[in-house]
Design brief:
Elements lengths: L1 H10 L5 E6 L7 E7 L6 E7 L7 H20 L14 E2 L8 E2 L5 E6 L4 E2 L7 H18 L17 H14 L6 H11 L7 H7 L6 E3 L8 E4 L5 E4 L6 E3 L1 H12 L17 H15 L5 H5 L1 H22 L11 H18 L1 H11 L1
Helix pairs in contact: 3-7, 3-8, 4-10, 5-11, 7-10, 8-12, 10-11
The structure holds 2-acetamido-2-deoxy-1-O-phosphono-alpha-D-glucopyranose and magnesium ion.
The site of 2-acetamido-2-deoxy-1-O-phosphono-alpha-D-glucopyranose has 11 residues, from loops.
């Protein structure tokens, strides 16, 4: 707590800190909402970066500044998304002018402005919300589409490179003292049956069929801020994983998160389904802003991306369970196993609807 107050004091733009509380349910970093006693902006967001995951945290803040400054400049002369309020968090500086602060126990802190009058949800509530989520991702991609990828650092090497996660899984599995259970056996078999398909996106990238573009990296439903007054999406927050990548990682991640009405934390993994009506609403919103820059090849790989990113997240959770929960924060020992089962069930549901999802994509392009 002492460190928390000290960190908040470094970044506070004015006034006195009167409250600090945990905010959101991030699986990697620690996030806090800070309240000040006076002034126009009463709140800001303070975060402690998990440096086990983000080994070079300075690159994270650097990317964040690059991307937020770029978007702020673009919003000023926006010729699309007419009438849409769109906000981007600002990176706050310490009194010494730094975009981060390292405390005496080597914790890495940074702060950003708080987006007021908006909220986020852990699941998509209806088709309208789904469409807005899609618009948010389309808006974001469009706003960064002219930012050269070499302006962004690779903050998390291997992120969303599915074959690398499979390799890591193999290493961990070989060393794990595997306690067999119906759930563990299901996961091992599930991964084993899908080994051949993990290269699709990386192959398309290597063959030059899919270009590197700036991506968000984590456009899950609760990173999309919805204006409490209008119900419109107004921001895509959590910019830690912005880096060069495939828009397919983002589209896949957004859909695996948003088309699962049970949510990724449900205990009822057997009931998890991929909802194609939500998928249609989200893609509709996305394409209303992103159609211009998608190529034929982009469309060709969309179904595979939807399937693969759900599978990949299941693989990441399962590997972390086997490894003893070293990456994702957990509330109990089998938490990552439960999360893996949810993503694998979702993958299964996507696979069972392949024909209709492909037909939907075809119809919308
Ligand atoms: C992690 O930390 P959080 O909750 O923003 C993870 C994402 C996963 C997500 C699943 C850097 O995001 O890739 O999709 O959990 N972030 C990182 O909820 O690994
Ligand atoms: Mg994140």
């Amino acid at each position: 707590m002492e460190n928390l107050v000290a960190a908040a004091d470094r970044f506070k733009p004015h006034g006195k800190v009167i409250d600090i509380r945990e905010h959101g349910g991030g699986n990697v970093n620690d996030t806090f909402l800070v309240t000040l006693d006076s002034g126009g902006e009463r709140h800001f967001i303070l975060q402690r970066i998990n440096t086990r995951v983000f080994r070079r945290p300075r690159l994270v803040t650097q990317n964040m500044r690059t991307v937020t400054e770029h978007i702020h400049r673009r919003i000023e002369r926006l010729s699309f998304g007419a009438g849409r309020r769109w906000e981007v968090p600002r990176v706050l500086l310490t009194q010494g002018g730094q975009d981060h602060w390292v405390d005496s126990s080597s914790s890495f802190w940074r702060a950003i402005s708080f987006i007021d009058g908006a909220q986020s949800f852990d699941t998509v509530t209806d088709l309208e919300h789904g469409r807005e989520v899609g618009c948010a991702l389309g808006m974001f991609h469009r706003l960064v589409s002219d930012l050269p990828t070499d302006a962004l650092a690779d903050t998390l090497e291997g992120f969303h490179i599915t074959p690398r996660y499979l390799r890591r899984y193999d290493e961990v599995l070989a060393q794990a003292a595997l306690r067999s259970s119906p759930e563990v056996n299901f996961c091992v078999r599930f991964v084993g049956e899908r080994r051949a398909g993990v290269h699709v996106l990386e192959d398309a990238k290597a063959q030059g069929r899919l270009p590197l573009r700036p991506i968000h990296g984590d456009p899950k439903v609760n990173n999309i801020m919805i204006d409490t007054a209008t119900g419109q999406a107004i921001s895509l927050v959590d910019l830690d994983t912005v880096k060069p990548g495939l828009v397919h990682y983002d589209i896949g991640d957004c859909l695996r998160s948003c088309c699962n009405p049970s949510g990724e934390e449900t205990e009822q993994w057997e009931a998890v389904r991929f909802q194609t009506d939500l998928c249609r609403a989200i893609l509709g919103g996305y394409l209303s802003l992103a159609r211009d820059f998608l190529t034929e090849n982009d469309y060709e790989c969309l179904y595979e991306a939807i399937r693969l990113i759900a599978f990949e997240l299941g693989l990441r959770f399962f590997t972390d369970y086997l490894e003893g929960n070293v990456y994702f924060k957990v509330r109990h020992e089998k938490h990552n196993l439960a999360r893996a089962l949810v993503q694998f069930k979702l993958t299964e549901s996507i696979e069972s609807q392949e024909a209709s999802i492909r037909a939907m994509i075809q119809e919308m392009r």
